[in-house]
Amino acid sequence: MKKEYDFSKGKVGPVLDSTGKTRVTMYLDNDVLAAFRTRSEAACKGYQTLINEALRQHLAEGETVNEENLRRILREELERTGS
Questions:
Q1: Domain residues of the chain, as ranges?
Q2: How far apart are CA 61 and CA 13, in angstroms?
Q3: How far is CA 66 from CA 1, 54, 57, in A?
Q4: Which of 20, 43, 57, 80 has the fewest CB atoms within 10 Å distance of its CB?
Q5: Which of 79, 71, 82 is nearest to 30 (CA)?
Q6: CB of 32 within 8 A of CB of 78?
């Protein structure tokens, strides 16, 4: 290893661009989040992927996603799968 490195041309941010994805911050009910995390272990998928799939399914059905509908969609998805 070198004793010093030149970071003068370095850029702030991720090394690779995330194409087609956007980082968002949202608040979810603790029980909803816990249920999706439990389901993610059984499905061998990330809980965020499962939430994204549930939202995509409802969008495909022509449903508008706002805060009220988001809560309902997530709860329906959890009830449907028995989580």
A1: 30-81
A2: 36
A3: 52, 14, 15
A4: 20
A5: 71
A6: yes
**Dist. CA 62–CA 80, nearest whole Å:** 19
Q: Which helix (H) or strand (E) holds 43?
A: helix 30-43
Digit-coded pLDDT (tens) for 23-44:
888 899 999 999 999 999 999 9
The whole-angstrom separation of Cα 81 and Cα 59 is 19
Query: DSSP code of 18?
Result: -
CA–CA separation, 47 vs 38, rounded Å?
8
Residue type, 7: F
SS3 per-residue string spanning 50-80: HHHHHHHHHHHCCCCCCHHHHHHHHHHHHHH
